[in-house]
Amino acid sequence: MSVSYRKDMFWLAGLFIVLMLTPTILPNNYYLTIMILGCLHAMIAVGLCLLVGHAGQISLGHAGFYGLAAYTSAYLSTTWGLPVELSMLAGVVLTVVVSILVGMPSLKLKGHYLAMATLGFGIILSILFTETVDITGGPSGFVGIPRLSLAGFELHRDVDIFRVVAILLCLLVWLCFNVLHSRMGRALRALHTSDQAAQAMGIDVARHKLFVFVLSAGFAGLAGVLYAHYLTFIAPASFGFMFSVELMVMVVLGGMVSVPGAIIGAFFITILPELLRAFEDIEIILFGLILVVCMIFLPDGLAGGSARLWAWVKTKLALGCSRG
Amino acid sequence: MKSTLLALKNIDVFYGHIHAVRRVTLHVRQGEIVALIGGNGAGKTTMLCTISGLIRPSQGSILYQDVEITRQSPEAIVRAGLSHVPEGRLVFSPLSVEDNLHLGAYTRPYFRKRSDMLQDVETMYAMFPVLRERRHQHAGTLSGGEQQMLAIARALMARPKLLLLDEPGMGLAPLVVKDIFRHILNLRDELGLTVLLVEQNARSALKVADRGYVLENGRILIQGTAGELLANHDVQRAYLGRELDEN
């Protein structure tokens, strides 16, 4: 195994330990809720990191996939009365199928045009969630979704749900690292530089683009079904265009190509608004300001920034030791 | 006479309404270096992309080792033994030099023969020592000449029989261009590779080439051995700047 792969696995182990210890230090359920949402956002962000950061294909439609899975699972489990596990599976599968259908034509586009196509898809879904009142409950939301259950046991406590979500997040991250360190991962990064050069190497560009698009949509789908069965209530506002943009911000803030960065970015964007609640009216201004400052002073994202900070601390420590 | 490795017959290529390549017929024999020269927009790059399957011709046929490859996918063409070094090098800049080389072997079933591939990487380092020095560096941080060598080495990783080189000297200092062309000659003499070379720098190209074609507005105007082309009055006037020398 290469050095960088070992490094990534080390990081993953660290993430797992931190996540497992988190519930013990959180004072109440409010914080736990935010952490659960953070994990769900992180799931989507790592998928997007592969799609946008590594393969260079932009998507502004992932909130749509997130919502599609959430609504599908909610509908099947509530209206049809299917078991929660089964409807969750159906939600993810449907999302994957739809992402294949959407991806095949739209991934022929590049750059801004791909952004436009996926944006359009996201908006169509968002309108569907709002307008098909009979199925989705419309703007007032879908209520009475059964709680997440595992092998017949309903998970009553938020702590249990958090553990499930955290473990799933770690599994997805593990999957991402393995994809990135494979032949496939190299091919994806090749796409980013130039379609033509990648093609000249004999890489099937269309297939690889579709693979990574569907993979990231699947991640969003998994996050979506967990979201529906955790909150037991969903509304179209959670799956709108703004959420797609927020997801992109998480990846960009994390440093684009860094999976750990995407996770840090996801938690950062999820937690920051809660911290700023105290400022009430100027909350959103501060939020924007912090993002701008981050992008100016941390051009390589939170991941790159923290790596530099760490290097700085290490040299300072080394200096201190040699002097002392 | 050596056998024909690549033969194009009456190739036509359109970009929308634009007739970029008109009825081009050419051939490359085993072990030859063939130069395709011409000015900007003559259709040189289009020709190479058509051969490697990146662009589909609207008419005509391309035979490689007497097998029709005209409508095959770029992957299949790379597998068949044609490697394309694209214009402007297009190395994968965020990847390390070594990863670039590994990508070059993408079409090879390396899960069975990983040791073979690593062996080939070593061969490339032996051929281009500067790449070994920079093996862990991002390809984007290499100089233009080093990137060109990397692009060539990357293409060689697919173990081609025929190398398609698009403007290897583009934007490089004359000394570096000389070095690159020396490498191209070595490829043929030592590895027995056949090379189809596109160049604007007609003089450098014809110095190493055996034969050449002059392309203008998508048509082949003149063809002949490198010596004939260098001596041809029209070629001299249009591409070698001879008239300016005399005046």
Radius of gyration of chain B: 18 Å
> From the structure provided, what is the oligomeric state, counting identical versus distinct chains?
heterodimer
Q: What is the helix/strand order of chain A?
A: HHHHHHEEHHHHHHHH
**In percent terms, what proportion of residues of chain A is strand?**
under 5%
The number of strands of chain A is 2
Helical amount among residues of chain B, as a percent range?
A: 40-55%
Number of helices of chain B: 11
Structural class of chain B: alpha/beta
Helix and strand sequence of chain B: EEEHEEHEHHHHEHEHEEHHH
Distance between the termini of chain A: 39 Å
Low-confidence stretches of chain A: none
CATH architecture designation of chain A: Orthogonal Bundle
Can you describe this structure?
The complex is a heterodimer of chains A (324) and B (247). Chain A is mainly alpha-helical and 324 residues long. Chain A has a single domain, classed as ABC transporter involved in vitamin B12 uptake, BtuC (Orthogonal Bundle). Chain A has helices spanning 3-25, 29-54, 62-78, 84-106, 111-131, 133-136, 158-180, 183-193, 195-200, 205-231, 241-254, 259-276, 283-297, 301-323, and strands at 149-150, 153-154. In chain A, strands 1-2 form a two-stranded antiparallel sheet. Chain B has 247 residues and is of the alpha/beta class. Chain B has one domain: Rossmann fold. Helices cover 40% and strands 26% of the residues of chain B. Chain B contains eleven helices and ten strands. Chain B has helices at 44-51, 74-80, 97-104, 114-127, 129-133, 144-156, 174-191, 202-208, 226-231, 233-240, 242-246; strands at 4-15, 18-29, 33-37, 59-64, 67-68, 82-85, 162-166, 194-199, 211-216, 219-225. In chain B, the strands form two sheets. Chain B has a six-stranded mixed beta sheet with strand order 6-7-8-3-9-10, sandwiched between helices. Chain B has a four-stranded antiparallel beta sheet with strand order 2-1-4-5, with helices on one face. Chain B is globular, with a radius of gyration of 18 Å. The model of chain B has no long low-confidence stretch (mean pLDDT 90). The interface between A and B is medium-sized, with 18 and 29 residues.
